[in-house]
Each structure stands twice: as C-alpha cells, then as structure tokens.
Design goal:
By secondary structure, the chain is an alpha+beta fold. The chain folds into three domains: 132 residues, PAS domain (Beta-Lactamase); 79 residues, Helix Hairpins (Orthogonal Bundle), CATH 1.10.287; 164 residues, Heat Shock Protein 90. The protein has 14 helices and 13 strands. The strands form two sheets. Strands 7, 8, 9, 10, 11, 12 and 13 form a seven-stranded mixed β-sheet that branches. It has a six-stranded antiparallel β-sheet with strand order 2-1-6-5-4-3. The radius of gyration is 27 Å and the shape is globular. It binds adenosine-5'-diphosphate. Adenosine-5'-diphosphate (ADP) binds next to helix 10 and helix 12.
Amino acid sequence: MSLFNRNKPKDTASADNAPLAVMALNSIHDGVIITDKNGIIKFINPAAVSMTECGMAANAIGLDYGLLLKLRSKEGRDLEEAENPLIQSMRTSQPLEKYACCLVASQSAKVIPIAISVIIAEGTGDRIITFRNITKELAEEGEQAEFISTASHEMRTPVATIDGYLSLALNPQTAAIDERARGYLTAAQAASKHLGKLFQDLLDVTKLDDGRIRPKMVPVEMVGTVKQIADAHMMRAREAKIDFRFGTSDPNNFGDSHRLEQVVYGFVDIDFLREIIDNLIDNAIKYTPAGGSIYVNVRGDGDRVLINVTDTGIGISSEDIGHIFQKFYRADNSDTREIGGTGLGLYLVKQRVEAMGGRVWAESGFGEGSTFFVSLPRLSNEEYEKRMIVVRNQQALLAQSPPPQASPPAPPVPQQASSPQSPPILQTPTIPQQQINNQIGGQQ
Ligand code: ADP
C-alpha cells in the first residue's frame, strides 16, 4: 500500500491504515496511553513505557492509568485530586490541553517535566493521553526569560532618566518653553511612560513566571484594605468624569447605598493585592467613557473573599473574553485601538491571583460593561486572631532585636516617576509563612 495513494479517502482510522498508525505511535518520542472510559489502559507506546518506567507494555495493559501517571505540579509539589487536571479530565470527560506539570517515574522516582493532553474519543469515550518531555523547552524558556529580564532591567534606567528630564522641561519653574514645544514634549513624555510601564511589566512577568517573586501571605482585613487601594483612584476617575463608588452591597445595583458594614478577613500578599486592584481599576477607567460608572465591592463568600471591579464601559466581546488573560492579548476593535496598553496587565493579575491560591475571571458583553471577579482565600475570625497573635509576637521580637549595622549610603539613582494611584499602604509586617504555620500548629 502506498502512503501517497491519492485515490484513498483521507480516513486515517481506516483498517488499511491501522498498522501504519501503530508504527507511527511506536516510533514517536511523545508518550501515548489509550484507556477505556474508566481509565483502564488498553494501549501504551514505547515512549510512554520508557517515561513511566513500567518495564514493558504488557505490564501496563489492564492497569488503572493513575498507577502509571503520577503527577506533581510544575514546581514539584504533590497535587491534591481536586487540583489535578488529569484526574478531573478523566473523570468528567473534558479534554485537557497541554497542561505543564511533572511526571514521577515508577522505578527511579525521577521527576520529568511534561506537557500532558487528553482527548476523549467520540462514541467509545476512550481517553487518548499524550505527554511530552519539556525539559529542553523549559531550559530555552528560562534563557529567553533571563534575556528579557536583563534587557528590561537595563532599559528601564535610561527611560526613567528621559522621563525625568522631560518632567523638568515641562515644569514652568525649571524651564521656559513655548506652547508648541510643550505639545511635543507632552507627547514624548506619554510615550516614555508607556515604554517604562512596558519594561516594568516585562520584568514582573519574567519574575512571576520563574517564581522569583513569591507571595508573602499575611492576615488582612480585606474591606478596609481594598477600599484604601480603591480610594486612591477616586481623583483620576473624577477627572475622567466617571462615577466611582466603593461598597459592600449588590454589585449590580448602582443606586444602592454603599455602607461599609462587613468585616472580611483574608490571607494575602498586600503588594500583590494592590497591584491586582490597581490594574483592574486602571483598566476600568481606561475602558469606560465619560459619564460611566465604576463600582468596587468586597464580600465574604463561604471560605473565599470575593472582590469585584465593575464598570459600565465598552465591554468585551465573546470572542475576546476567553483570551484577555493571555500574555500580550489586546482586543482589537474601533473602541480599543485608540487606547494605549501593553496587553500584559491582566496576565500579571492572573499570575498574582493564582500565586495566592485565588481565581480571577471576567463577565462582560461587547458594549455592556464588564465585571472582573477575584476570589481569594478567606480567614474566619478565629483564624485571623490566631495569625494576628503570631504577627504581634513577631513585631515584639523585632522591636527587641538590635538595629542592623548601618550600610554605606546608596548611590543616587534616577527616580522612576511614582504612579499617582499607589500611595503607601499600612502594611502588616511580613512574617515567613512557615513561621506562622509553626506557631499556630501548621494550620493553613
Ligand atoms: P492593556 O494594557 O491592553 O489594557 P490588559 O492585559 O490589562 O492590557 O487587558 C487586555 C485586554 O482586555 C485589553 O486590551 C482590553 O481589550 C480588554 N480589557 C481589559 N479590561 C477591560 C475593561 N474593564 N473593559 C473593557 N475591556 C477590557
């Protein structure tokens, strides 16, 4: 039979092609395991035998897939059933696409980084599981991230200097310029700010992606903290002629009274939280025309804290909404084209929310405004009190310890213009998580 027989119908599953298909599966480097709908292995190719270290195909046939495919998170942490997408996909018959994680080989317990996918066969419900060793890709990604990180870091400094000189040129107390020059320099300053933001975002993306920034989780009263962050945006919203409100009542009811009556405790990294709220409100202001409204709300929802940032702006189409949390994704339509942005903000929001054990999602329709929800771990009153005792003890210890040795003065560095919406927030001192857990008996 010729591979190039043009008269044959293009049916790769036909009986004629079956030996060819098996030959292909036996020669590829990707692992392939086929199970029935209950997860019992019917087929395993040599690459999968080798990666799982099950010895030979015959050892695997008839076994439950879970005995061979032991997964850990991509950071190497054991995965609970509820957070294991392979188990979820096998149970719910939902396909899984290229989930990056680690496979623990049966014999040597070697941990291999893999990307795993599951396809559910139509009719039979068989599961076709494919997985690929991604060690090389990760190394290449690491090098790429290192390059972006170094380049962004180096480029931020001259951009901050340019911004500083432009501010001096635009300040009537330090320079005299005519109106036309003011127009040019104002445009140049807007571009340099955009560039500075892009470099900062790129730097944050690489640091978050490779785990260089980890959240320092502390107990926090959420309503007051989020209000403090949100209030700093009030002026800018007013300048943009947008009605800006903060409250704890129904997010869909703009006319409702907005009283701060609820106390909700959370367990978060305050810097992460500020970046997240700043970003969502920045977007809400950016994508809401004058005359619109923005509404920020915090409430307890079972064991979660639910924050929403709602606007009556341009909204997001159903085609775009599934992509807006991806790196560099920007909805491209006549409403957004004129509005500047890097397409990195929501990606950073997602990275930060997920690093704190939370979830972020958006509900919107084109022309119908948008609501961004952030769900984060909540603490009960008792848990909050316990954790605060630890924090206070820690503060007392710090107060007693001798002051650190004076370090030589730092050389002057060009100052990046600080963002007007980010005043310092009263911070709970950072206590290492392990220490908090130890002192309250390992409770999370
Ligand atoms: P950008 O810098 O482009 O704003 P983001 O990652 O913050 O990047 O957002 C990605 C895209 O999501 C934006 O380009 C915009 O199309 C859409 N978007 C984000 N927030 C809103 C919002 N509140 N209203 C309408 N569209 C939004």
